[in-house]
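Subject: two folds for Thursday's group meeting

Dear M.,

Sorry for the delay on this. The cluster queue was jammed most of the week, so I only got both jobs back this morning. I'm pasting them in the order they finished. Each block is the input sequence followed by the predicted structure tokens. Could you check whether the formatting survives your parser before we put anything on slides? The first protein is the one we discussed after the seminar.
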Amino acid sequence: MSRTVYFVSESTGITAETLGHSLLSQFDTLDFEQVYMPYINTDLRAKALTQRMQEATDRDGVRPIVFATMLNNEIRDILKSGNCFYMELFEGFIDPLSAELGVPPSRKSGQSHSIKPSYYTKRIEAINFAMANDDGIRPDNFHRADVVLTGVSRSGKTPTCLYLAMHYGLRSANYPITEEDFERGDVPQLVWDCRHKLFALTIDPQRLQLIREERRPNSPYSSLERCQEDIRQAQQIFKRLQIPVLNTTSQSIEEISSHIIKGLRSNLER
């Protein structure tokens, strides 16, 4: 069965989409046609959306599902009146939280994604740092980094560094394990010096081969034998360094990043 799903908000819709995806992930035997509907912030737009809901019902033979973060009661009532299964994601939390805090909610849209100037500046600086210290360009800057990632080529270091910078404001650098490192069985002293904030990324050889094949098709670099050997030697170096090793094969960047954040906090508590 296929169901149409709308992610609806009077603002960006990021919260509705994120929470909705999390809920839908528990029903992986079903197919969902997902429709992103931000800025439904007028009666006219809400009524137009209810018409789309009816069209989806006629097409699918079953009413669509609506995940919404709608603080405007009038627009919410219009959407609820449509032929849909409506889930207001704020409804069950705002009033109980207000009662506990003793403060009424502002009822302003877009508040969850507003950025304080100081934090915005921190994130921009972190992104610039990650880009300037990518791929081991400046190991002499590792002492300025909040976190340093290492691993073989194409194991996910760069996207993880950028994610940590954009979402957590962390100054992230990375060091790729190279042929020279394999030959001497060790990494430079500058990498050793940052072991307290060093994390290794590994990946299954078969997955690594697919990724490398896209970059350099039919080359020794992308052969399965080379991938297997690179990972084997890198694991020996990681063991010598005695650092946490995270496998990126089947984990998302978000999951890997959460493990890194947890590891950094544990290091600070020691």
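Second protein, same layout:
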Amino acid sequence: MADQLIRATAANGGIRAVGVITTRLTEIARQRHQLSYVATAALGRAMSSGLLLVSSMKKEGSRVNLRIKGQGPLGGLFVDAGLDGTVRGYVDHPAVELPPNSKGKLDVGGAIGEGYLYVLRDVGYGYPYSSTVELISGEVGEDVAHYLVTSEQTPSALLVGVFVDQTGVIASGGLLLQVLPKAARDESLVQLLEERVSSLQSFTTMLRAGRSLPDMLRGVLGDLGLEIFPEVQLVRFDCGCSFNRVLGALKMLGETELLDMIDSDEGAEAICHFCGEIYQADSDHLRQLIIELQAQSS
């Protein structure tokens, strides 16, 4: 099933629902960053969460950044997701592995540990909106849902998951259900939604069983006037890095530093944090940058 995102409403527009499948893009991230099992689960959950959050924004070019900083061995992670369906991200320590937790699942909470979640929403103009909340579990999904309730005052249920084995990522994605302000006063509706989400199987269990995103939403909201929008948005792992951008960054180091690189290393190597792409700039590239700097100064 292709990586995709769908949107829906229910309860006469009082509930907003979004579902996303991120299996392929999470596998690409696993390969590019050489992620351990627990690091794959952490980053996959966060990338799904980022895509679900940004899906509510309206202006073209809008993006959401999620930064988790924890005291656990994983250190933390960073995700950048766009309204256009692109997402990228990395973890601080990709090789960290932990034994399964008491439930027999990947111990993402233990890998991240105590810390904070930082969320930045950028609509492309003005100052981005940012917020910080303390992590309540380190399991990513619970922490993002906690952010939505405390910082945006939106009762929300977020179900995200990643299933990965020795062959790679088998299933990844999630569901976001939100009670919008006009319906949030209906405590019975909020309670009903919480009960139904808590009774669901894990997202990856449903996906591996062949259930589509519309099937999952019907299982939760089918009797509440569910309306699934016809548009299916494709989502993908995408990084805007390029060799020209690397050269631009090297140029900012200045002539003295560039000359030192030529003398000591006969060039420079740069690795993109977001996608792991390796860029090599040889001595000729660096000499050209020096010529450009000298031309600018004169």
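Two things I noticed about the second structure. The CA atoms of residues 7 and 18 lie 5 Å apart. The chain has a mean pLDDT of 92.

Cheers,
T.
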